[in-house]
Amino acid sequence: MNSLFTEEQLLLQAAAREFAEKELQPRAARIDQEAVFPEEAMKMLAELEMTGIPYPQEYGGGGADMISYALILEELAKQCEATALTLSSHTMAAAPILTFGAKEQITRFVPALNSLRKIGAFALTEAGAGSDAGGIVTSAVLDGDDYVINGTKIFITNGDKCDIVLLFARTDPASKGNKGLSAFIVEKKVSDFEVGKHEDKMGIRGSHTTELIFRNCRVPKENLLGKPGEGLKIALTTLVGGRIAIAAQAVGVAQACLDESINYAKERHQFGRPLASNQAIQWMIADMAKDVAAARLLTHHAAKLFDLGEPCGTQASIAKLFASEAAMNHAIKAVQIHGGYGYVRGTKVERLFRDVKVMEIFEGTSEVHRMIISGSLIK
Ligand SMILES: Cc1cc2nc3c(=O)[nH]c(=O)nc-3n(C[C@H](O)[C@H](O)[C@H](O)COP(=O)(O)OP(=O)(O)OC[C@H]3O[C@@H](n4cnc5c(N)ncnc54)[C@H](O)[C@@H]3O)c2cc1C
User: Fold this and answer.
1) Which of 34, 129, 130, 249 has the fewest Cβ atoms within 10 angstroms?
2) Average pLDDT, stretch 251-270?
3) Angle value at C-alpha 70, between 64 and 73, nearest 5 degrees
């Protein structure tokens, strides 16, 4: 397996693994139980130069590729998915600025995000616009030198902590559906928006999820990203990388479920022998090992296409769909193998079980990914 990777990719993987085992593993239970935002861990990741890892070094990034980023996220997610998601949601904010931004926007915002001087968020979802971004009603109206934004975004990861929000709003009120949407770089210190409801979630509790409320919020017109009307294109392009990142995290959770299951099945004795000596348990472990290997390869395939600059939207959807469903199935099996101990607070698999469900929901639900995949095949 290792021969698939370059020396540099393996070094980054090893550094992430060491960090995650030493720093995240001991913090993960508290982050979950107290819903603590992983601020300390994020600062340490910034010191390791892992907060802008897939972006060019000239803008303060790590200069690494998508495969390296996937390897790092897998290692972080194995120990603490809340931290991995906080990092990937933050990292995602810089991607559209680099791809669609003017030079001035890139130099102004990307180094600050990469160094974690500013925390990023990506705000697409609204009460009436989840799977269907065409339902966006948040409006952006040009008034002198500013756009005036009105509307509420929901379920925004890093919402209460972010300094920079990639915001999607409707600039053409006459247009319907996916047309007439535009993207904005909204700075908290310049544009006055409020943090609304904090979601009390089943899992990934250390990852903060909030509403963002925009009431006559003025955003300088130079913070429009790309051209008016390019919002959907910008969102969908960004989500391709985002989905590879979620697939990588799902691989990490799936691997953690497998590791915990093997350890427990070897330690726990019933009927005078280890659980692992029963074929029923061995088959569950074999099935988990098969699916995590496949999920990892699909994720790295999508990441490789991404690095080559090839179209990879469908491959990203395949990887995200397969890996998130595999991770959910692994969590079910891992709890089953742990019996009653898997169902009580304090067991790692109980946390993994709660953390993983959302992976089938955000960055496109499983149904949306099936629509994307089949749509690319049936034309
Ligand atoms: C913890 C968390 C963090 C999040 N972070 C962010 C974030 O940072 N930024 C952001 O913008 N959003 C974020 N989201 C929002 C997330 O992306 C949406 O929840 C997701 O896109 C689904 O939208 P929805 O919840 O409105 O579900 P809906 O779109 O209402 O879907 C409900 C169900 O119906 C199914 N469905 C919908 N349409 C169809 C169809 N045509 N055919 C078949 N089935 C269909 C869906 O698959 C789903 O099963 C987050 C959500 C959560 C829970």
Assistant:
1) 34
2) 98
3) 105
- pLDDT tens track for 200-249: 999 999 999 999 999 999 999 999 999 999 999 999 999 999 999 999 99
* Every domain of the chain and the residues it spans: 2-114, 120-230, 233-377
Residues 134 and 343: their CA atoms lie apart, in Å, by: 40
- Predicted confidence (pLDDT) at residue 1 exceeds the cutoff of 80: no
* Ligand 1 atom nearest 123 alpha carbon: 11
pTM attached to this predicted model: 0.98
Retrieve residue 334's tokens. 């891992």
- What rounded mean pLDDT belongs to the chain? 97
Q: Is the CB of 130 under 6 A from ligand 1?
A: yes
Contacts of residue 254, defined as CB under 8 A and 6 or more positions apart, other chains included, come to 288, 291, 292, 295, 323, 326, 327, 330
Q: Which CATH class is domain 2-114?
A: mainly alpha
Task: Tell me, in angstroms, the distance from the centre of ligand 1 to residue 154's CA.
Answer: 11
| Cβ atoms 246, 366 nearer than 8 A | no
Same fold, 2-114 and 120-230: no
Look at residue 175 in the predicted model and tell me its pLDDT: 86
Catalytic residues: 363
Supply the residue whose CA is at minimum distance from atom 29 of ligand 1: 131
Split at pLDDT 50, 70, 90, the class of 2 is low
Q: CATH number of 120-230: 3.30.559.10, 2.160.20.10, 3.40.30.10, 2.40.110.10?
A: 2.40.110.10
Which protein residue's CA is at the shortest distance from atom 23 of ligand 1?
A: 130
